[in-house]
């Protein structure tokens, strides 16, 4: 590694048949802070020892040598032995990394909150565990005396990893509990929870900035530089890692809008698992806005939408509104064509531009329409010392249509979530009991 100039990477990819697409892996390499020096691709069945065919690996070695690249990034998943064998066949000190390790690196660079850091560490340990296990079993099978020490070492390393995994899980569980309580408190306060979801780089953070007030309601606002109104939105994958929640100003409702980590295809189970509590804000929402980049090709949008649906269907119960973002970058005919082609996956979408603030009113209307129904209620409150505090509680938790103050009573007409209406009944009966 040179350490001075930008480090460079050669991208490698193998597909069983057809043409290898490298656009996304190139974007990921850049998101990790590397420059793409060259690419080497192949269409054939996987080689068990080297992933690529032997001749292709020779070609790769030449390319690495010529470009003086620091690392090779495979879009394919590499087994521990493939990584080792490739290292042996490439110029000395060439780092060999696969798609998953690369995504982990990116997450590691962006993890600013305690929770994100724990999640990255958990994912790293889960990545490492099978490798440590493989080493242990190899060393144990090897009966040559000199190797016994290695076996013991690796076994304790394996135990170490397991212990740390369980400690991190406990700490993450505690954080989750706190977050769950916070969501419940927010619901009880009459807020509807709306989550932005979608493939990475679709424009979720840009939309959040456009739609919602500048104030974060979570305590860690300084940890989300990408959401700063003065900051540029980055054309990079995984700009956002944690979650940020802001108030969305709506006439009849109190809405909290949450932005979170983007989805990406081909994530291994252990990585998804490590980040699942971040997605809890999506799973627990009252409504999900599924953002797609409408400027991409129909096939690309379809693939990404499928990835998103697969991730969502596991747990999500909330209604989904598909948002065709970057509307400014497509003309009307093209947009109609795309919407028609994708109508099975994305029925009745809303087309907007977060960047150019196009059609956001329609999106807000749709949010209002698809959120859970409000109940309309009219309460007659007897006038006691506590009546005004109940009236102000209703103002805080509901949309008040009308209040009439009489000498003996106050009549308040409002709309709210069913649970809020229920609680207002309890408060009203207390007043009646006092009067
Ligand atoms: N043309 C156009 N570009 C947009 C629009 N919205 C976002 N972008 C650009 O798309 C890129 C990604 O935007 P972000 O808002 O960071 O996307 P994200 O979905 O939050 O991405 P991650 O946090 O990385 O998952 C940035 O370069 C934005 O400027 C839009 O409506 N039109
Ligand atoms: Mg973002």
From TrEMBL:
Superkingdom of the organism of origin: Archaea
Sequence ranges assigned to domain Hflx-type G in this UniProt record: 192-375
Main subcellular location: cytoplasm
Binding site residues for Mg(2+): 205, 240
One Pfam entry name: GTP-bdg_N
Cofactors (names): Mg(2+)
GO MF annotations, alphabetized: GTP binding; GTPase activity; metal ion binding
InterPro entries with a match to the protein in the record: G_HFLX_dom (IPR030394), GTP-bd (IPR006073), GTP-bd_M (IPR032305), GTPase_HflX (IPR016496), GTPase_HflX_N (IPR025121), GTPase_HflX_N_sf (IPR042108), P-loop_NTPase (IPR027417)
Subcellular location(s) of the protein: Cytoplasm
Binding site for GTP: 198-205, 259-262, 325-328, 353-355
Keyword Transmembrane: no
Listed PROSITE patterns: G_HFLX
Any GO CC annotation of this UniProt entry: cytoplasm
Family note: Belongs to the TRAFAC class OBG-HflX-like GTPase superfamily. HflX GTPase family.
Subunit structure: Monomer. Associates with the 50S ribosomal subunit.
HAMAP family from the UniProt entry: GTPase_HflX
Function: GTPase that associates with the 50S ribosomal subunit and may have a role during protein synthesis or ribosome biogenesis.
Name under which the protein is recorded: GTPase HflX
Organism: Halobacterium litoreum
Gene (UniProt): hflX
């Amino acid at each position: 590694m040179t350490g001075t100039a930008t480090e460079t990477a050669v991208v490698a990819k193998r597909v069983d048949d057809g043409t290898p697409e490298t656009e996304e892996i190139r974007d990921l390499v850049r998101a990790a802070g590397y420059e793409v020096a060259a690419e080497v691709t192949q269409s054939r069945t996987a080689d068990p020892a080297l992933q690529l065919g032997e001749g292709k690996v020779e070609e790769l070695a030449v390319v690495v040598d010529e470009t003086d690249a620091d690392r090779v990034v495979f879009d394919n998943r590499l087994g521990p032995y493939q990584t080792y064998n490739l290292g042996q066949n490439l110029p000395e000190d060439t780092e060999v990394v696969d798609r998953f390790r690369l995504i982990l690196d990116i997450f590691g660079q962006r993890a600013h909150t305690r929770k994100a850091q724990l999640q990255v560490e958990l994912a790293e340990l889960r990545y490492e565990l099978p490798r440590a296990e493989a080493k242990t079993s190899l060393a144990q099978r090897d009966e040559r005396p000199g190797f016994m020490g290695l076996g013991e070492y690796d076994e304790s390393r394996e135990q170490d990893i397991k212990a740390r995994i369980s400690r991190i899980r406990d700490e993450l569980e505690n954080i989750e509990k706190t977050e769950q309580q916070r969501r419940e408190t927010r619901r009880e306060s009459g807020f509807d929870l709306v989550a932005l979801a979608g493939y990475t780089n679709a424009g979720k953070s840009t939309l959040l900035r456009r739609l919602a007030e500048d104030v974060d309601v979570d305590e860690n606002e300084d940890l989300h530089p990408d959401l700063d109104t003065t900051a540029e939105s980055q054309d990079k994958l995984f700009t956002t890692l944690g979650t940020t929640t802001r108030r969305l100003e709506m006439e009849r409702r109190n809405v909290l809008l949450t932005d979170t980590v983007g989805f990406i295809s081909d994530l291994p189970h252990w990585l998804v698992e490590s980040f699942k509590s971040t997605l809890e804000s999506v799973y627990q929402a009252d409504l999900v806005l599924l953002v797609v980049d409408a400027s991409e090709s129909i096939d690309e949008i379809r693939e990404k939408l499928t990835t998103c649906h697969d991730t969502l269907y596991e747990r999500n119960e909330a209604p989904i509104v598909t948002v065709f973002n970057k509307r400014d970058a497509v003309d009307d005919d093209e947009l109609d064509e795309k919407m028609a082609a994708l109508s099975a996956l994305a029925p009745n979408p809303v087309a907007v531009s977060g960047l150019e603030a196009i059609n956001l009113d329609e999106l807000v209307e749709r949010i209002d329409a698809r959120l859970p129904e409000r109940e309309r209620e009219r309460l007659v409150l007897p006038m006691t010392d506590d009546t005004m505090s109940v009236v102000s509680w209703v103002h805080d938790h509901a949309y008040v249509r009308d209040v009439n103050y009489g000498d003996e009573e106050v009549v308040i007409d409002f709309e709210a979530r069913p649970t809020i209406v229920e609680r207002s009944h309890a408060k009203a009966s207390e007043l009646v009991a006092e009067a």
